[in-house]
Amino acid sequence: MNPDQDPYQDPNNGYYQDPNQVPQPQAYDEYGQPIYPSNEGYYDQYAQGQAPLPDGQNPNESYDQYYAQPPNFQQDGENFSDFSSYGPPGTPGYDSQYTPSQISYGEPSSSGASTPVYGNYDPNAIAMALPNDPYPAWTADSQSPATIEQIEDVFIDLTNRFGFQRDSMRNMFDHFMTLLDSRASRMSPDQALLSLHADYIGGDTANYKKWYFAAQLDMDDEVGFRNMNFGKLSRKAKKAKKKNKKAMEEADPEDTEATLNKIEGDTSLEAADFRWKAKMNALSPLERVRHIALYLLCWGEANQVRFTAECLCFIYKCALDYLDSPACQQRMEPMPEGDYLNRVITPLYRFLRNQVYEVSEGRYVKRERDHDEVIGYDDVNQLFWYPEGIAKIVFEDETKLIEVPTEERYLKLGDVVWDDVFFKTYKESRSWFHMITNFNRIWIMHVSIYWMYVAYSAPALYTHNYQQTLNNQPLAAYRWATAALGGSVACLIQLIATICEWSFVPRKWAGAQHLSRRFWFLCGIFAINLGPIIFVFAYDKDTVYSTATHVVAAVMFFVAVATVIFFSIMPLGGLFTPYLKKNTRRYVASQTFTASFAPLHGIDMWMSYFVWFTVFAAKYS
């Protein structure tokens, strides 16, 4: 038997079910989808006496028209009562007609998870102890934007279209309704649904929205990645950005269509955000339900992919594009149960598993591989931060995924060769040089300042023929120049930190900064700080006073002070690069996911200034 298909039995006779496991004699096609002898593997919401479409109703009509139909569920079908064991005695549910999922295996005493279930299950006893309505806050308001039956229809329809597991669908339905019910107990149902959609999908704090703009997926939707010049705005686009900024600030909330027409063709982040908010505000309640439901269903079966949040966002985006496509709307037969798991998640799971485990004597054992050779969750996740990373996703014939229309990408995910896609985004070498790159400003604030302090306070170290009894002093030019070398020390630390960064971050990662410009600019500043000092020491003997050297040395001391202050404040990544610039989209991903700090205002900002002023005053006094 294939090791991928061997279950592992725990001491309590529970079973840990590997998601790649396939029981015999189940057969799978070339895409890993289960092959059924008939339609028994399909999950049909209209089967078993469930509500058929009304006469003349086209099943491919819009979602809102479809979901607006009044529910007519019969007791024999799978309906809301199947999703919960709450209800008065006799309520149909798991006790009478629940059928396990096609992919849920295990003995009758096993729950299908690692923890076995023992004892008898009495739904009547549960029903007497718990309220009849599991979601009272949501159902109590007759003005709820969507009924439980309509929400159930959304979950069932998505399960049919993508092949999600029924057990997972039930869990996610209950999870979704619990979220809605919790919020509806504190606010109106409309606000509960709107805030939940904002937190998951459309709001400024939603991780999906952050990723969508960081990876420039709005540009992909507008012009396509294959037609883009990544990270650059044309002169025409820059002019349009300036022109449209005022129009967006003065936009009438009641007439967003006019503003959208004005900013058409503007590819700036501000214009894209305005279009996004206009789109989110135009969504109907059921469309918001559908967005959240699809995300929860994708997340519910994501397995280890849950640890790669932006990878999951990419999967969700592909699924959403497919859902809105005519191909999906016109598809009559449902996807086999487990298609999403087998097509999308299993290949990624196997890649992640094979990085750490290998098969030895029919069982999985941990690989003897150092951490710097393991492609981990961060490496997988960071591929999806930039459009250049998404452009590296290829099929076996070297065709790129971005060359496929957006609505067709979801069905192609099962053909991606992930082993050829992912790579280490950081060279995890054990080296003390990390101390220089990661703490370069700490070193500058201490070493450079200490150099200046010692040079000015201990002239005996560089005084010609110094005699302690005479306490003869050096020339003023030499004292100024020696202290001014602190600026050169700061430049030298920055140069070493840049060279180390070159060795730590692979150049092929899209988030790697272009270090050549920074390196040569640092060399120039180093020469500016060091060159005049060499002139002071080489111009004349250290026993001969010179006005020229005195002036040059004094000026260079203040240049060195300015250099140290600038390098102490400015992060290494912000030196002579557009990394921290807000008017470019080149490094939006890094700013979003690694440099996103809450801004301080008012008294909070001044208190922060005061704290740091006190710290450095105490340090240098």
From TrEMBL:
This protein's superkingdom?
A: Eukaryota
Q: Which SMART domains match?
A: FKS1_dom1
A Pfam family cross-referenced in the UniProt record is FKS1_dom1
Q: Which UniProt keywords apply?
A: Membrane, Transmembrane, Transmembrane helix
InterPro entries per the UniProt record, alphabetical? FKS1-like_dom1, FKS1-like_dom2
Alphabetical GO CC annotations of the entry are: plasma membrane
Database matches in PANTHER family: 1,3-BETA-GLUCAN SYNTHASE COMPONENT FKS1-RELATED (PTHR12741:SF48), LYST-INTERACTING PROTEIN LIP5 DOPAMINE RESPONSIVE PROTEIN DRG-1 (PTHR12741)
**Amino acid composition bias (Polar residues), ranges on this chain:** 10-24, 71-84, 94-114
Q: Name one GO biological process term.
A: (1->3)-beta-D-glucan biosynthetic process
Show where the 1,3-beta-glucan synthase component FKS1-like domain sits: 286-398
Q: Please give the start and end residues of each transmembrane region.
A: 439-458, 478-499, 519-539, 551-576, 597-618
Name of the protein in its database record: FKS1
Q: Where is this region: Disordered?
A: 1-116
Any one GO MF annotation of this record: 1,3-beta-D-glucan synthase activity
